[in-house]
């Protein structure tokens, strides 16, 4: 039996009340996610940074500006997609997410994904890629190659911040976003097809260790 979808506002309220780990003590505000709730493409990053913590929105600042440029290579705009992170609170000093933090926080991401029901999940960086695909293989080997996690098409790409620190990655990232655009163009958006003409929905299988 499929789990019912939870409205995004309800999930947000649960995150705002969350005190499961110590990250809640240092946050200015949660960084829940933003974008089109009917998006065909959901982008999943790693964790909020300083600017995200202050503004309450993922991918702002330099990395966010570069992400906007990259989206254009795929024929996308920010308003077309939904963006969220593995963690909803900023780790101190922008350190990497810890395994226990990921375990405690990612049920919210699963519920967001179930509600938005994207066709593509674009994972940016190692932590989101390894979580969604349940793999130990790093982003260097997986980027730009279409994967599957249950019903979802998963397309791993380097984190935009990586290209800010290492400009040699820019050509690779732009190529990967062009590939994403080509994949989107290959088939019509399933959500634009009349319900009566859609293929029966596949069982919502797992990513990150649980049914998604």
TrEMBL record:
It catalyses: Hydrolyzes single-stranded DNA or mismatched double-stranded DNA and polynucleotides, releasing free uracil. Keywords: 4Fe-4S, DNA damage, DNA repair, Glycosidase, Hydrolase, Iron, Iron-sulfur, Metal-binding. Residues 188-201 have a biased composition (Basic and acidic residues). Residues 32-178 form the Uracil-DNA glycosylase-like domain. The keyword Iron applies. Its EC number is 3.2.2.27. Residues 187-212 are annotated as: Disordered. One of its GO terms (molecular function) is uracil DNA N-glycosylase activity. InterPro entries: UDG_Type-4/5, Ura-DNA_glyco_family4, Uracil-DNA_glycosylase-like, Uracil-DNA_glycosylase-like_sf. Pfam families: UDG. The keyword Hydrolase applies. Belongs to the uracil-DNA glycosylase (UDG) superfamily. Type 4 (UDGa) family. NCBIfam families: UDG_fam4 (TIGR00758). This is Type-4 uracil-DNA glycosylase.
């Amino acid at each position: 039996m499929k789990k019912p979808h939870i409205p995004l506002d309800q999930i947000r309220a649960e995150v705002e009340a969350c005190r499961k780990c110590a990250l809640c003590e240092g946050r200015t505000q949660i960084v829940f996610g933003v974008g089109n709730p009917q998006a065909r493409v959901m982008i999943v990053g790693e964790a909020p940074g300083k600017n995200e913590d202050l503004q309450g929105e993922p991918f702002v600042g330099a990395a966010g500006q570069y992400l906007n440029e990259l989206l254009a290579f795929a024929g996308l705009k920010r308003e077309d997609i939904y963006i969220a992170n593995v963690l909803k609170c900023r780790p101190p000093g922008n350190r990497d997410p810890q395994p226990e933090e990921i375990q405690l926080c990612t049920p919210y991401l699963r519920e967001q994904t179930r509600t938005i029901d994207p066709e593509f999940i674009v994972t940016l960086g190692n932590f989101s890629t390894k979580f969604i695909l349940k793999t130990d293989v790093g982003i260097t080997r997986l980027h730009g190659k279409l994967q599957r996690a249950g019903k979802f098409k998963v397309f791993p790409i380097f984190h935009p911040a990586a290209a800010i620190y290492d400009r040699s990655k820019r050509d690779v990232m732009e190529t990967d976003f062009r590939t994403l655009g080509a994949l989107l163009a290959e088939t019509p958006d399933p959500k634009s097809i009349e319900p009566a003409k859609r293929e029966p929905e596949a069982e919502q299988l797992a990513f990150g260790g649980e049914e998604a």
